[in-house]
Design a protein that fits this description.
Mean pLDDT: 82
CATH architecture of the domain at 22-118: Orthogonal Bundle
CATH class of the domain at 22-118: Mainly Alpha
Shape: globular
CATH topology of the domain at 22-118: Arc Repressor Mutant, subunit A
Largest sheet: 3 strands, antiparallel
Radius of gyration: 19 Å
Structural class: mainly alpha
Strand order of the largest sheet: 1-3-2
Number of helices: 6
Order of helices and strands: HHEHHEEHH
Number of strands: 3
Strand content: 5-15%
Low-confidence stretches: 147-161
Length: 161
């Protein structure tokens, strides 16, 4: 689908939202060669990048509540995509980490996603690709979650004193 001038996003924020909608539909859809459910990609990727983490830290880093992350972890454990172990510093605490099978399936699935993006940008100049890479990293760093405070909370989210 090509945009005509009237439908083209007018601001950077609108362009980002348009891009996110298109990309999220593509990323969430199962594709030929997928080794894992696309819904688990962010969780497995996060564990691959972080290494072994406490469940509470995993929930916080993924912005999911404890019950949701617990349910996902249970399913990923059943599939053999993650491992659970005792924390060497505190035996009462359990750590989760991506398993070798999880790494294998994540790598395969990301390879397919990367190939689709490479194909979509095949006619881009190297400079355009580098500009996009640099700006996406910058945007990602700017989007680091910030806790809501009284000065950042919207009026309808404020708790009455």
């Amino acid at each position: 689908m090509h945009l005509n001038g009237q439908d083209e996003p007018k601001t950077p924020a609108d362009a980002i939202m348009y891009f996110m909608m298109k990309l999220s539909r593509r990323v969430r859809a199962r594709q030929t060669g997928d080794a894992i459910d696309p819904a688990y990609l962010p969780l497995l990727y996060s564990l691959k990048m972080s290494g072994a983490v406490r469940l509470s830290d995993f929930a916080e880093s993924t912005s999911l509540d404890a019950s949701t992350i617990s349910r996902h972890v249970g399913h990923l454990l059943d599939l053999g995509l993650i491992l659970r172990s005792a924390d060497p510093d505190d035996g009462r605490v359990r750590l989760v980490q991506i398993s070798p099978l999880g790494v294998k399936h994540l790598t395969k699935t990301l390879h397919h996603r990367r190939a689709a993006l490479d194909e979509a940008m095949a006619d881009w100049s190297p400079e355009d690709g580098e500009d996009l890479r640099r700006l996406l990293i910058r945007l990602s760093q700017s989007l680091t979650p910030q806790p809501l405070t009284p000065t950042t909370a919207r009026d309808d989210e404020r708790v009455a004193p």
